[in-house]
């Protein structure tokens, strides 16, 4: 039986095997021990898929050694120098060197994590090893508090000819402008993510970016956003209700905007929505970092003005940790007739209940006088509170499966629904399981279980 189960896999051509191996080797963890508060539950080789694959059999080894791309993506975790030993450091360096050698000339995708402020006047050997390959860095992500601007090999601002994605975030401190400056010679850079408070002061080529993720929307960053005229993706993380003055900033090419609230206390979106115009926007995502608290207050008038000012056609909306009434939710969705994808998580009304009331559900019904979201194809809901009109919801979803073309409704293709505070009544939701068997993607789960159909 075991032999029969392996024969089909053994018969796969190398081209297919490589694709499987490639998807499995995106996170090779090369970790310097002992890492504080970390304990591996599996042998170290289990965290090194490229190495593990090459140890299975002669064929797999030959394919792995002939595929430098499998060795080019790795995550490095450097322990504080006072917690390392000669033996563990030697094994760590040997493994890293092995990966760098096997990756040959392939572009490197590196995630580097460090603890502490640094290891003294000289670079850790780890840094020296990867800095010898800066011409191959394609994606570089760093989390830690090293002063990169003073690291030998980076302080000279080397060339990064193929680097296109850069992420720099501090662990206990913010990334400094001098850290960003190290990467000013990156002609292909298109995506930057950083928690630097004053990125506009950096010498990075902001005008060439198409994706930007910055920690705070500070007044000082108006210059930065004005420079990023080609942005298609923007994520702003803010702990304050900021405003960029009386006039709005227009980003003509922006297609995706995400706003993340980084503080626990309640905050309104009014000022942030009043600060922008995005005429090409198709995707809007709003959420708080604190998933347990709904703390983003929904400003209906500001949202309506934002949509009118932008004259955009939204197709995707994601709301998480938002305080909004059912009436305001209905009114907001009325403004978005082209919306195809809706995702909600942890929504609460001002009284502490759920805005997904019977009235809201009925407004979504395909047989109502003017159904909300006629183009809706994908619906994802994570529902707080136990009170919910299950029967009305089941009827509404059923009404949007293969609707009469005369109604003008698109067919709902996907439903993902999770009850956060109650168990799932499997029998009650049998009508939706039938839709799943007919072709709709239906995933429904309840509290403390993974049930997805009978």
Explain what you see.
The protein has about 450 residues and is α/β, with parallel strands linked by helices. Among the domains are: about 100 residues, no CATH class; about 130 residues, Leucine-rich repeat, LRR (right-handed beta-alpha superhelix). Helix content is about 25%, strand content about 20%. Strand 3, helix 6 and strand 4 form a beta-alpha-beta unit. The longest helix is centred in the N-terminal third of the chain and has 17 residues.
How many strand elements?
20
Taking the alpha carbons of the first and last residues, their distance comes to 29 Å
Structural class: alpha/beta
Helix content: 25-40%
Percentage of residues in DSSP E strands? 15-25%
> What is the CA-based Rg, rounded?
26 Å
Poorly predicted regions are none
Specify the CATH class of the domain at 324-454.
Alpha Beta
Number of helices: 14
Q: Reading side by side through the largest sheet, how are the strands ordered?
A: 1-2-3-4-5-6-7-8-10-13-15-17-18-19-20
Q: What name does CATH use for the topology of the domain at 324-454?
A: Leucine-rich repeat, LRR (right-handed beta-alpha superhelix)
Largest sheet: 15 strands, parallel
Mean pLDDT equals 88
The CATH architecture of the domain at 324-454 comes to Alpha-Beta Horseshoe
Keywords:
20% strand; 454 residues; globular; Leucine-rich repeat, LRR (right-handed beta-alpha superhelix); 15-stranded parallel sheet; 20 strands
């Amino acid at each position: 039986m075991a032999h029969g189960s392996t024969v089909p896999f053994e018969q796969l051509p190398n081209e297919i095997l490589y694709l499987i191996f490639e998807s499995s080797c995106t996170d090779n963890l090369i970790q310097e021990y002992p890492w504080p508060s970390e304990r591996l539950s599996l042998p170290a080789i289990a965290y090194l898929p490229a190495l593990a694959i090459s140890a299975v059999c002669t064929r797999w080894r030959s394919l792995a050694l002939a595929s430098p791309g499998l060795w080019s993506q790795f995550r490095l975790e450097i322990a504080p120098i006072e917690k390392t030993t000669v033996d563990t450091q030697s094994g760590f360096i040997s493994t890293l060197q092995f990966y760098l050698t096997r990756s040959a000339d392939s572009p490197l995708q590196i995630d580097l994590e460090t603890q502490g402020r640094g290891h003294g006047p000289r670079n850790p050997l780890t840094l020296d090893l990867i800095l010898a390959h800066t011409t191959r860095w394609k994606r570089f992500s760093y989390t830690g508090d090293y002063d990169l601007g003073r690291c030998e090999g980076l302080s000279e601002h080397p060339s990064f000819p193929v680097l296109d994605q850069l992420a720099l975030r501090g662990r206990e401190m913010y990334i400094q402008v001098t850290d960003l400056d190290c990467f000013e010679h990156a002609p292909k850079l298109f995506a930057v993510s950083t928690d630097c408070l004053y990125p506009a002061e950096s010498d990075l080529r902001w005008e060439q970016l198409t994706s930007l993720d910055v920690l705070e929307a500070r007044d000082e960053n108006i210059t930065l956003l004005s420079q990023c005229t080609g942005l298609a993706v923007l994520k702003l993380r803010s702990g304050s209700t900021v405003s960029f003055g009386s006039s709005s900033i227009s980003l003509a090419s922006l297609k995706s905007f995400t706003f993340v609230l980084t503080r626990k206390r309640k905050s309104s979106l009014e000022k942030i929505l009043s600060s922008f115009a995005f005429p090409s926007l198709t995707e809007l995502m709003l959420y708080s970092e604190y998933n347990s608290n709904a703390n983003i207050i929904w400003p209906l008038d500001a949202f309506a003005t934002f949509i009118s000012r932008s004259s955009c056609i939204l197709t995707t909306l994601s709301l998480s940790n938002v305080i909004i009434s059912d009436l305001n939710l209905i009114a907001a969705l009325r403004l978005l007739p082209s919306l195809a994808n809706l995702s909600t998580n942890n929504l609460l009304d001002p009284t502490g209940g759920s805005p997904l009331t019977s009235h809201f559900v009925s407004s979504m019904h395909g047989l109502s006088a003017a159904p909300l979201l006629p183009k809706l194809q994908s619906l994802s809901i994570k529902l707080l509170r136990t009170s919910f009109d299950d029967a009305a919801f089941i009827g509404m979803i059923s009404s949007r499966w293969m609707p009469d073309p005369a109604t003008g409704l698109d067919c709902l293709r996907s439903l993902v629904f999770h009850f956060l505070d109650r168990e799932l009544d499997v029998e009650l939701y049998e009508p939706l399981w039938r839709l799943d068997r007919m072709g709709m993607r239906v995933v429904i789960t309840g509290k403390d279980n993974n049930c997805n159909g009978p």
